[in-house]
Amino acid sequence: MCSEWPLIPLRDFVDLLAGFAFKSTGYSDGQDDVRLLRGDNIAPGRVRWDGVKRWSRENAVGLERYALEPGDVVLAMDRPWIPAGLKVAQVQAADTPSYLVQRVARIRPASREDCSFLFALLSTPEFESYIQNVTTGTAVPHISAKQILDFEFRLPPAYVRAKVGEIVAALNERITLLRETNTTLEAMAQALFKSWFVDFDPVHARARGEQPAGLTPEVAALFPDSFEESDLGQVPKGWSTGSLNDLALLNPESWTVKNRPDSVAYVDLANAKENEIAEITEFLFEDAPSRARRVLRDGDTIVGTVRPGNRSYAFISNPRPNLTGSTGFAVLRPKQKAATEYVYLAATANSSIEYLAHVADGGAYPAVRPEVVSNLPCVLPSYDVLNAFHAVAAPLFAKVAANHQQAQTLANLRDTLLPRLISGQLRLPDAEEQLSEAGLCQ
Fold this sequence. Notes:
- Keywords: DNA-binding, Restriction system.
- One of its GO terms (molecular function) is DNA binding.
- Belongs to the type-I restriction system S methylase family.
- By secondary structure, the protein is α+β, with helices and mostly antiparallel strands.
- It contains eleven helices and 28 strands.
- It has helices spanning 115-122, 125-134, 145-149, 158-197, 201-207, 217-220, 340-348, 350-359, 370-374, 383-423, 428-437; strands at 7-9, 14-18, 27-28, 34-37, 42-43, 46-47, 53-55, 73-76, 81-82, 85-86, 88-90, 98-100, 104-109, 152-154, 227-230, 233-236, 240-243, 248-250, 263-267, 272-273, 276-277, 281-284, 292-295, 301-304, 313-315, 323-326, 329-334, 377-380.
- The strands form ten sheets. Strands 2-13-8-11 form a four-stranded antiparallel beta sheet. The protein has a four-stranded mixed beta sheet with strand order 3-7-4-12, with no helix packed on it.
- Strand 20 and strand 21 form a beta hairpin.
- Helix 4 runs antiparallel to helix 10 (383-423).
- The protein is globular, with a radius of gyration of 25 Å.
- The two termini are 24 Å apart.
């Protein structure tokens, strides 16, 4: 079957455009201005807009050909491969309007109906392996437009390409929904943390003689009704101030020659981003990177100490055996269960990450010592308030973890099913059966 499909170079199937050389001196801070899609904004499988640069609309006149459209496939041409995978993604409607920056390729099929098939094709292990083999340069590994277009593949018939497109769309839609749900759940937890432990809303309400909004009388009664001065300014009366050291242990466990396991499941800084671990790599211990030493347990918070502004942090939930973090992480293990979510939210609050990024030193390799993370100042509420917060936040964190797991399962299904379907190794009825089992049959 597959052998009957024509073998063609990618150039016969797509149009490729490299981005425009937008000058950094022209970057804009206007939130209504156009986003610029750089290689840094491409993660394996999706576009990310943290650290986005913008360009004023009035200065974009004449650059319309670099405007991205939903369905476009984008590929980083500098450092196209990272440990988490190939930096290729499909532009969604929410990613537009945006413009393509130099050293990023926009790849568009002749027929818009083939956009999702093209994304699936460029997400296959075959294309990833090809890109790794043709990448040149050591300081900044890179690929050229010609190298991308030289990739050869067997072109399935239109009905197969259409089905692949349907599968990609269905899986990506479900994965995106799970990620968006998690963003909402985390925002809810962060908002509650800020209300209780930064703005002290329940205390202000009680000081005015009012019932704190959204709290039962029993929980409201746990909060003081007045303030007192402290080294952090006014804090609820009876609460103390300190640091995360008061609530968590720093780097409590490490693998040594005496306790080392036969193998580890390794998490590097590059694979952790804003509470999402993109990839966990299995190593025999003797083959693992020398930085694979931090033992990670359920309820731990990990915060990247190298370039902390990159927001390489995550909450560890239901870890696999021998989960191990890089020594580039500060590992915070709560001293009591009630402090679990508080520690994570305090350590990863925007103010904390911004502070760590500000004090990081080292020039091209800015970093902070792990102790700087554990010394982050915080208020120390009563145990009863801390436990009440845990009772509310823990279910949110559990749902986030469940969604992470489901999204990973769907991504694994996508990454194993589609290459076999594209290559002709898997028949459409068999693919539909597997999709039906996952609740995704069209």
